[in-house]
Amino acid sequence: MFHKEKLRELAKKSRILRVLARKYRIHRRQPHWEELLRADRGLWEEALKKAEKGVRVLFPTTIGAYVTGTTLESLLAIALTLRGVRAEVLLCDHLLPACFDCWIGWFKDQRDFAHRGPGKELCSDCFTPSYRMFKTLGIRVHRYSDFISTEDMRETERIASAIPEDEIAGLTIDGLRVGEHALAGTLRFYARGDLGTEPCGETILRRYLAASILTGRVTERLLRREDYRCAIFHHGIYVPQGIMGEVCRKHGVRVVNWNPGYRKNTFIFSHQDTYHHTMMTEPVENWKHMAWNDTLEEELMDYLRSRWQGSRDWIWFHEKPGFDLEEIARQTGIDFSKPSVGLLTSVMWDARLHYPSNAFPSMLDWVFATIEYFRKRPELQLIIRIHPAEIRGTLPSRQRMRDEIARVWPALPENIIVIPPESPVSTYAVMQECDSVIIYNTKTGIELAAMGIPVIVAGEAWVRNKGFALEVADDKQYYTLLDTLPLGRRMTEEKTLLARKYAYHFFFRRMIPLEFMAPTGSNPPFRIELESIRELLPGASKGLDVVCQGILDGGEFIYPAELFGEEGFSPSVESM
User: Domain range spanning residue 207?
Assistant: First the structure.
């Protein structure tokens, strides 16, 4: 028998092996509901019958091969059906010329994708397994091809090929920002922050533009024909999810977006838009006046310490991070006796969206401007920690921050130190020694502020608008604030408490536990572990009840962990 690593190496070289491996992975990890439904067939048939007259919700899952999505969304469809809701699904049936499931790493040569699109290589094992799975549940499934004609395809191709390349990103059709979503999808495909000199960048961008236009038309026509209270789907950005959200909001269909949370067994839900946006505008009243006590303090700080090694999270980036400051100093050249300012980057392509509060056009512009500033402040050390997800994330970045910095500054001044993404050095250990830390959009700002470390926000980080970070809205404010460094002090007790309340709210209340989602340690990060669908009935899971109630009545997706405890799971409902 071949070793797994050998098989992976062979798969990289062989398209056939890659396709077979993908088919096997999707089949093995796609939820198999048959046995559970067989055990509770009477309960399920009765629930389906009652749901026929219930309010209707749509799961426009679209990408059947995205098993992370089909896993949670099929479970939610069952849970809502058990609550009298009529759930329906929308799937792409080989129609989109590019989508969320496409990634350059799948193709030996990007020209293959530019010429053929996803084709049989990806589409063949996307639609059919998920269609069968949802049909097994007895749930109505709509197909993209139900709403798109051959003439629609021709017209879309004409539009996507005719527009000048430099006008694509700003293109709107019927008020929908099809171009912005196409660019976001293309950047994700390339795992880059810009298209740079990619030889097929324009062609693939046009593919995503066509996909964005087609998704808009499909969703428009479905919503004109059918009446839904709510549409529930993952991410809320990229193609097709971003454009789907726009169409739903345009038609007055309430949007619920979701993502896996950071803590194991948890998920983040948001109303009307991706949580990348809504976390910045969430009312502070949702958490600011939460009663605080020593128990919550201990619970929060214990979890934040666990994040240093990722022991309680779905995903972490270093198995054995280094904390010894003397060893860190030896490896990096940092002089911890000198005043230092930390700078934390993010992955350049991830969730690249437009935010009006950004002080710079892009994260790269911000990094360059900050280096240029500190080049003239030799009395301060600037410690740039490049995000480990650049090389260890689900989609490894093809545009690396260290390379971009080296392109402009082949040799950095002695006071500017770069810790590369592969370094096992603990980000937390280094940032604790800094006078203050500058961020653009990393969630680490939440954790550092909760530790009392002053955090300067130049981008769309979620600590913005919360009352405890140092925020700037333009480059002038940014440089004025940098002129005050080093601050020489930690945050006040009042602001630290505010930061800790928000951290608790973010990690424990906004991340809703679903105890039957067991970690896998791979992709997808979870699988369903149920003994009966009765575990999805009202009252069986406090977290699931919060999610379903928020979907049905539009209430906040907040799990009151301060009342239920961190996990607070209810026992299973007794047999009915």
Answer: 17-260
